[in-house]
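Researcher: Here's my situation. A collaborator sent me these components and asked whether they could plausibly form a single complex. I don't have experimental data yet, so a predicted model of the whole assembly would be a useful starting point for our discussion.
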Amino acid sequence: MTDRAALWQQLQQAELVAGELPIEPDNQQPAFFLRILLGASAWLSALFFCVFIATFFISVFSVTRNIWIIGVILYGLSLWISRIAKIPLFVQQAVMACSLAGQALIVYGLLESNANSQLSAVVILILEILLFALTGIRGQRAGAIFIACAALLWLLGQHAWLYALPVLSAATAWLWLNRLRWQQQAAYLQPATSGLTLALCLTIFVTLLANSSELSWLRISSSDWHTQLSTAAALSSVVCLVLAWQLIQQRVQQPKLRSIAAFVSVGVALVNLKMPGLAPLCLLLCIGVAHAYTRLIWLNLCCLVVYLLLYYYSLNETLLYKSLLLCVSGAVLLILYSLLIRVTGNLREEHSDHA
Amino acid sequence: MSAHRQQLLDWVASGHLDASKLEQALALSNSAANASANLRFLSRVVLAFAVLLLCSGLIFFFAYNWDDLSRYNKFAIAQTAVLLSLLPLLWVDIRQPAGQASLFAASLLVGALLALVGQTYQSGADSYQLFLVWAVLIVPWVILTKMPALCLLLLVLFNLSLVLALNNLEIDRLFVPFTHPGWSLFALNASAAGLWLIVTQHLPDTALLRWAGRIISLYSLLILTFLAIGYIYSWSNSDALTLPIWTGFSGLWLYLYRVRQLDLVMLSALSMAAIVLLISILAHALADHIPFDGLFLLLALTVMGLSSAAAVWLKRLNQHVLILHRASTHD
């Protein structure tokens, strides 16, 4: 008996399922190393394809203003092919490359015809939403959501893009928290969650860069930057606190551990007021650990390391102040570690008592 | 556990298992997250961040070069910090997370102490000797503990000292036939990867050990691929042996990760490197012979074709692994 059959039988005995063992579908998601390989090569081929179309178009028509028409044709064609059932891997790659190249040409054409950059952002947003809803290739949906979020940030402009931080934090954390509940809609919700997570990371790092005095020449931040930053940080703290409480109620059973978790959540939410973006990253890490989402854990660990490096590097204070801040943060974490170790010991003892 | 979990999620997605019964099914198949294991993992993450923040704080403190503090006081603080970081080892075992964290902190603080020496006696806080001495001083601890994080720190220090030495000593050319300075970096990291394979082959296979080994090997492949691309376009490298060595290294890679022990992550990395290299060769060879637009179309189609072929090969290998795994669990 195979693993699948044994598991099905186990579920049948517990009356969780009924009927025969389902036939194994052949449209399963490829492993993560394959997705990285295919994704990277799709972007690379899209780049070459885009240059080919652009050079070919210029050599034939010698005017680049109408290049967006070629973009629309490529986009439409790729969307149509993607909806055909069971297309081979090579065609999937070609579809992704065509779609990306088409979108790039549409944006280039719009910018060339002196259109407002806000209009280009609206067009990208619409294209990505359509792509997300209509494409038959699951891997393309995550990319569509990520690019749609980036377009939305651009559309919100210098005065409002920062408010995307609490909104994206809420949406991402909520989707991860309820991922198992909406498993039947996994074909759409899982790529949306991945795309939103990447978009949240992007927003956090753009916020950090905008906050750095060394990068003020980029003019990402507006004149009332500090007021906006405080409001966005406060809102994201509140959002994360609410969702952290939901996570605690779902996953933490022990009363003592629950009070520690609540106390730490409030602490992180307060620190988030000074370090905007820290709370969403910590919350996603905890959701990853609680639900055993390995990739979410590693993504957030890497993001946290990069975040701390960038934060302390761009902090406009003396090295002595930074040093004290780092030592105090380290000491607080050491205290938290000793608390966690004690609770883990208690849990283990309780577990052995029950056994 | 993760295979069962994925299977259950697939059944929920296909409607064969009711979503409301998923939690029960996960618990039944022992695929649900374990509270105690979660807490243990989180506490380790917290400990790792605490050590990194504390050590960075101390390094920043010496970098500030506070004039109000005498040099004796500074040395006393640096040495006390090293001793304090080693203090937990009196009570905890070196194999425990706290013991490993304290030894890692001590290894970092040795560097802070050496940087203070460089700062005080004007020998420079970023010279290659500093990183080399630092690396040599922590070698016994690395051998003693065989800790992946400490091994990676040691390799980073050797890499840093080598890059700084090449820069400080203005070495632009090495000996024939390997004249490009990048060969020394490749030799260092490839030797480290080989040593890692030999040392860890009798140790129990853990994710941390596996990933540390992968990082070292991938870094070697990255250096060699950069050298090969540099040779194709004649940017900086003119060593004729570059491409044969790349081919030989790929052969060795295939032997290690396809024949000796199948590792699909490493094989997909090699596939990506081979695609990039082939595209570079094709672009360079055909640039003067076919029109610009035709060349880019050819490159786009080649990338798609090669990546699809690689994906099909890796998928087949993956299925083969799954069949073997099922057969072994069934036995």
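Model: Some features of this prediction you could bring to your collaborator: Chain B touches chain A through 82 residues (CB under 8 Å). The mean pLDDT of chain B is 86.
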